[in-house]
Specification:
Blueprint (H helix, E strand, L loop, with lengths): L5 H5 L15 H13 L5 H14 L1 H6 L10 H10 L2 H15 L7 E8 L10 E8 L5 E6 L7 H14 L6 E3 L7 H9 L3 E3 L7 H11 L12
Parallel strand pairs: 1-4, 4-5
Antiparallel strand pairs: 1-2, 2-3
Length: 227
C-alpha cells in the first residue's frame, strides 16, 4: 500500500479564504510554511523573507513545494491563511499522515498537557494544550486545546479524552502523568485497543493502598539475602 504524501494529506484541508483573493492554493502554502519553519523561520515575516531568498537562489524548490514559478507568499497572504485556517482539520490531517508514514505501529504514545502563555494581552490569550505524541518518533499525533481557563484539572481531562479519541491507540501502550490516572481515561484507552501505564501518587490514597496490597509479596516485606 502506497503511503500518502504530505501534499495529499494537506489537500484534504478546506480552504476558508475568499476565492477571489487566492493567489496560491492552500496545500502549497502550508507546505511552504512547513519548509520555512524547518529552516528556522519563526514568524510570518521570517517565512516571507525565506521565500524571497529562495526565489533568488532556489526557485526550483518553491516550484517543488507547489507554488507558481517566480512567486512566493507575502506576509499578508500568510496572515490570511493562518487566520482562516481550520486548525482542527489541519491537525487531524497532519496527525494521520505522521501516524501512517513516520511512526512504528507498536510505538508507545504519551499524553501530556502544556500551557502556552500567549501574547498581546487578550488578543492572543494563553491556552492549555493536551497532546498525544509518539515517544519514538517525537511526533504529535493529536492535539486539543483545553476549554475555558488554562490550568484547571477538569478541563485538561476533558481535552485528554478528546485528544485520545483522535489518536491511533490500537496496539499501543499509552503513558502519562498522575493527572491521567482516571478510570474513564483508562477505559477509553482499552476500548480503543490500547494498553496504559500510568503512575499512582499520594493524591489517590485508596488506590495506592490497594495496589500496594495487591503487589506486596506474601508474608510482608521481602527479606534481604544473607551476606
Amino acid at each position: 500500500m502506497t503511503q500518502p504524501t504530505l501534499a495529499e494529506a494537506l489537500a484534504a484541508i478546506p480552504d476558508r479564504r475568499r476565492a477571489h483573493r487566492r493567489v496560491h492554493d492552500l496545500a502549497p502554502l502550508l507546505q511552504f510554511s512547513v519548509a520555512a519553519m524547518l529552516c528556522g523561520a519563526r514568524s510570518l515575516y521570517a517565512m516571507a523573507q525565506w521565500g524571497r531568498e529562495r526565489r533568488q537562489d532556489r526557485p526550483d524548490l518553491l516550484v517543488a513545494l507547489g507554488l507558481a514559478p517566480g512567486r512566493s507568499p507575502s506576509v499578508a497572504t500568510l496572515h490570511r491563511v493562518f487566520k482562516r485556517l481550520d486548525v482542527a482539520a489541519f491537525e487531524r490531517a497532519v496527525g494521520a499522515w505522521l501516524a501512517q508514514t513516520g511512526v512504528a505501529a507498536q510505538d508507545p504514545v504519551a499524553v501530556d498537557g502544556k500551557a502556552l502563555r500567549g501574547i498581546h494581552g487578550e488578543q492572543v490569550p494563553g491556552v492549555h494544550l493536551v497532546s498525544v505524541y509518539s515517544v519514538g518518533a517525537g511526533a504529535v499525533l493529536a492535539q486539543l486545546a483545553a476549554p475555558g481557563t488554562p490550568w484547571v484539572q477538569g478541563q485538561e481531562l476533558a481535552a485528554t479524552h478528546g485528544a485520545l479519541a483522535r489518536a491511533p491507540l490500537r496496539g499501543r501502550v499509552v503513558v502519562g502523568d498522575a493527572l491521567q490516572t482516571q478510570r474513564a481515561v483508562c477505559a477509553q484507552i482499552v476500548e480503543s485497543g490500547g494498553d496504559y501505564l500510568l503512575p499512582v501518587k499520594d493524591n489517590q490514597p485508596a488506590l495506592r493502598a490497594e495496589l500496594a496490597a495487591a503487589f506486596s509479596p506474601p508474608g510482608g516485606a521481602p527479606r534481604r539475602p544473607r551476606a
